[in-house]
Amino acid sequence: MQTTFTAEQLKDSATRESNTILRTCVHCGFCTATCPTFQLLGDELDSPRGRIYLIKDMLESGRPATEEVVRHVDRCLSCLSCMTTCPSGVNYMHLVDHARHYIEETYQRPLGERLLRGVLAFVLPKPGRFRLALKGAALARPFTALLPAGMFKTRVRAMLKLAPKQLPPPDPMQDAQTHKALGEKRGRVALLTGCAQQVLDPGINAATIRLLTRMGIEVVIPRGQGCCGALTHHMGQTPRAMDSARANLRAWDREMQRGGLDAVVINASGCGTTVKDYGFMFRDEKPKWKERAERVSALAMDITEVLAKFNYAPTRAAPGLTVAYHSACSLQHGQKITALPKQLLTKAGFTVKEPAEGHLCCGSAGTYNLMQPEIAGQLKERKLANLNRTGAQLIAAGNIGCLTQLGDGALPTAHTVELLDWMAGGPEPAAITQARQPA
Questions:
Q1: Which of 99, 117, 255, 361 could form a disulfide with 79 if both were Cys (CB 3.0 to 4.6 A apart)?
Q2: 194 conformational bin, left if phi > 0, alpha if psi -120 to 50, beta if neither
Q3: Torsion of CA 317, 318, 320, 324, to 10 degrees
Q4: Domain 172-307: CATH architecture, name and number where available
Q5: What secondary structure letter does DSSP report for 238?
Q6: Are 247 and 200 in contact (CB under 8 A)?
Q7: Predicted model pTM
Q8: 3 state DSSP class of 190
């Protein structure tokens, strides 16, 4: 693709990177075949190729973002399926992240949307605030009918619908501490406990800690770590995201200095994709931060990668259960981890089935199901229908967002690590209990 950025524009690092990405695109349109929004809406501007043209024009002109550009970029899930399909290697992730930052800097959204985005950015990355907000959701549900009709009401209703009616209690296992390896020590890792996951399903972190320590791996929950920055990064709020990332880099660097780390373990694939990109995000920072970020990016591993590295093995007999494996977009497209989770589940004794259209997003996509509830709802129903057709007894996935999105369907859901922990001596997950109950 030919570009016409000026020499002055190309002094900006983000623009130079976007220029390189744009020039990689050959307009082939392969990306349209696997783009969820294009599949649903049939509008070229709601495909990666269409968005690339809009972003190119916006950045080259230097003008503020228009409502049209914002509308179509906002509809992008950042599922990155287009990057898996693209034969030219276009890094759409970095391009759309730049576009979102540019939009945030140059476009004033309607007041209601600004308020909603501000609340999400303030609440979701902080587990304490998020827990209070979810408790408040129960009180707010009866009053949604009083809101004026429109997108704001639709979004508020989507938020309240996703909020669980009962929250699990906080788990002290997630607090800053060191969980000693059981038996001979084989390694030492830091675990990113996440933000929303800590509140919605602390059992995922508990299962991770139990499983790793039984395998002889010391698990450190570093003091000072927090949100990976993905939630605000994908809203275009780059300074806020970078602050979150810096806090993590400080916390993990201390642990590297204290006792060394074999990995920074991440069991929410949306977070993992961002942490593995820290090296790029900090490319223009001072050498101290740049080097820290590059080290962390190299150490960051999904929980399934860690289990494979340390030779996970089950200790129970095969359970005789069939699992439908839902491959989170951030895992299969963002991190290119596709076969490994299925291999581990099979090794643990499960029969694993994949749904049709496994490459398509479930509609969760961070805050997408809150900001674009109608499109997210259509993708959810399509995904659940495909999962149900597998004939499986439960769904396994490696991302809390997907599990929350799909959790009210006909099949019980469990994180992959919860199933692997159970088969290696851990407690039975609630999803297994539900799956065994007669229909």
A1: 361
A2: left
A3: 150
A4: 3-Layer(aba) Sandwich (3.40)
A5: H
A6: no
A7: 0.93
A8: strand
